[in-house]
Write a structure and sequence with these properties.
The protein is built from no helices and eleven strands. The protein has strands at about 1-5, 10, 15-25, 35-40, 45-50, 55-60, 65-70, 75-80, 90-100, 100-105, 110-115. Strands 2, 4, 5, 6, 9, 10 and 11 form a seven-stranded mixed sheet that branches. A four-stranded antiparallel sheet has the order 1-3-8-7, with no helix packed on it.
């Protein structure tokens, strides 16, 4: 199982970023996907989740109306479009799968929102 996040960077408040997670080594379309984030000195928190088919999504209260999760089962990728970013969105962002009871994580991608 390999998960590789990309797309992070430095962005000004109010800006946008699109994160992507490329997955390999398992049947991607069989599993729901989560995006988590972890800010310095804080625990990991869920941003958004999407079902295996992409027909159902869930967002944390802080992500609603700003973040959009999507997936492409043909390409084995899942994206997180983040708009109207705020300084408090600064964190390392991770995609996550629970495969047969085991949580799998990528290495994360750093998002920094600062002027």
């Amino acid at each position: 199982v390999q998960l590789v996040e990309s797309g992070g960077g430095l962005v000004q408040p109010g800006g946008s970023l699109r994160l992507s997670c490329a997955a390999s080594g398992f049947t991607f379309s069989n599993y729901a996907v989560n995006w988590f984030r972890q800010a310095p000195a804080k625990g990991r928190e869920l941003d958004a989740a999407i079902s295996d088919t992409g027909s159902s999504t869930h967002y944390a209260f802080f992500a609603k109306d700003r973040f959009t999760i999507s997936r492409d089962n043909a390409k084995n990728t899942v994206d997180l479009q983040m708009n109207r970013l705020k300084p408090e969105d600064t964190a390392v962002y991770y995609c996550n799968f629970n495969i047969r009871g085991a949580d799998r994580w990528g290495q994360g991608t750093q998002v920094t929102v600062s002027s």
